């Protein structure tokens, strides 16, 4: 794959890139509708594919938060046409790396010297390139194999301007009011800024490894502060298979079950015991090594305030599902119901949220759950499509809910999709054995 020597970092440069892409997308629409005049039965698949490729090509060159958005959207199966899902999912694996001269320049900027002065060996060509950084293999002077994550130049500085460009597009796409969703944009901005602080990620990685060292089947790399900085992060190199490839290969049932069970137990332990969680359950952030699950990215950690945790899980409890008044009390605490809502609107929203909560909570209320069950995921998709077509619901729900919903929901839906990819039945209550009173 061809490397790149320069990344647009200025607001005008990055905005111009997106505007140029918008012109090409507009041209694709004109071409599509021209062809549809000749063939009324023509569907949108070719248009979606052409637009997805144009947008992804632009985002690849911008990198940073723009490309991160594509990676996140690739996990939202109900939000975009399949062509976008398939193309945007390449954000984890098919991104052009920085050229060797730019790598050396970046090292000098962040650590004050080129990599060959720090390591006994450093591979100038990256082994992986993604949204906000790329990974190189190195060897320490003590003989340890290392993975060195190098952040792309200008990523942190461009986050605010990127979001300013993306915000009006998102508002139009989802018919939202800017004031209603400002708290969500601030949450995204805060998390993206945290993800660009590799010093913070190093601390979070070490804390997670310490807090979860006793959980079986789970491994974490060691981290090296002496080889790290706010834009460079060095850790152990672990030979393993990316989780997505492991799932696609579909190894023996026992192997998949072990990995799926470890993943589930780890996430539920984080939420219910630690009150913080790894909030980026993208398959590219995990490896499988000798049967163990290896977590390798801790840039996005979400703290779970008690004021959100209690009503969030009470909302889907059997008691709340059976008691509308109790459910409405939870919805109010979660900012999903407002004092200004009419009684009719309150009842309408309560019914919708109850239906969603009951469906999503099914795995949590059973001793065992089969995540290979295609009917369960088809029901989720169907409910999402029905809600999306409900104009009254769309009008009422715009901008509702605590900002903590954004990453909590993303994490659990991501966890569900990983479990579905592994396609096994697991014990959903096993994590409780590690909880402390």
From TrEMBL:
Any one Gene Ontology molecular-function term assigned to this protein's record: ATP binding
Domain called Protein kinase: residue spans: 121-437
Any Pfam family the entry gives: ABC1
Similarity remark: Belongs to the protein kinase superfamily. ADCK protein kinase family.
PANTHER family to which the protein is assigned, alphabetical: CHAPERONE-ACTIVITY OF BC1 COMPLEX CABC1 -RELATED, PROTEIN ACTIVITY OF BC1 COMPLEX KINASE 7, CHLOROPLASTIC
The name this protein goes by in its record: ABC transporter
Classification of source organism: Bacteria, Candidatus Blackallbacteria
């Amino acid at each position: 794959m061809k490397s790149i020597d320069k990344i647009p970092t200025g607001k005008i440069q990055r905005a111009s890139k997106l505007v140029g892409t918008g012109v090409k997308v507009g041209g694709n629409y004109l071409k599509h509708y021209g062809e549809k005049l000749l063939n009324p039965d023509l569907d949108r698949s070719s248009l979606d594919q052409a637009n997805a490729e144009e947008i992804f090509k632009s985002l690849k060159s911008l990198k940073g938060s723009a490309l991160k958005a594509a990676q996140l959207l690739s996990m939202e199966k109900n939000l975009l046409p399949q062509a976008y899902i398939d193309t945007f999912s390449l954000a984890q694996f098919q991104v052009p790396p920085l050229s060797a001269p730019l790598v050396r320049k970046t090292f000098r900027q962040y650590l004050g010297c080129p990599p060959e002065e720090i390591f006994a060996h450093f591979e100038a060509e990256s082994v992986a390139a993604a949204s906000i950084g790329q990974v190189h293999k190195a060897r320490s002077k003590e003989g340890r194999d290392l993975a060195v994550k190098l952040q792309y130049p200008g990523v942190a500085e461009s986050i605010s301007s990127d979001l300013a460009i993306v915000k009006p597009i998102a508002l139009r796409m989802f018919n939202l009011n800017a004031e209603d969703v400002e708290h969500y944009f601030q949450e995204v901005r805060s998390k993206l800024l945290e993800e660009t602080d590799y010093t913070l990620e190093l601390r979070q990685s070490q804390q997670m490894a310490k807090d979860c060292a006793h959980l079986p089947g789970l491994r974490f790399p060691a981290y090296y502060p002496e080889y790290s900085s706010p834009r460079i992060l060095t850790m152990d190199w672990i030979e393993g298979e990316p989780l997505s490839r492991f799932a696609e290969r579909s190894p023996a049932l026992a192997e998949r079950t072990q990995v799926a069970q470890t993943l589930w137990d780890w996430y539920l332990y984080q939420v219910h015991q630690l009150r913080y969680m790894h909030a980026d359950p993208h398959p590219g952030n995990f490896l499988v090594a000798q049967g163990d699950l290896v977590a390798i990215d801790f840039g996005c950690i979400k703290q779970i305030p008690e004021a959100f945790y209690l009503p969030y899980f009470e909302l889907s409890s059997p008691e709340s599902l059976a008691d509308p008044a109790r459910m409405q009390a939870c919805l109010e605490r979660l900012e999903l119901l407002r004092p200004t809502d009419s009684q009719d609107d309150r009842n309408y929203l309560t019914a919708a949220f109850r239906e969603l909560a009951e469906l999503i909570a099914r795995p949590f209320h059973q001793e065992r759950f089969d995540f290979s069950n295609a009917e369960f995921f088809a029901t989720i998709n169907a409910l999402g499509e029905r809600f999306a077509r409900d104009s009254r619901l769309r009008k009422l729900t715009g901008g509702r809910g605590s900002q903590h919903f954004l990453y909590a929901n993303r994490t659990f839906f991501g966890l569900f999709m990983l479990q579905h990819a592994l396609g096994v039945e697991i014990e959903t209550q096993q994590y409780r054995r590690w909880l402390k009173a």
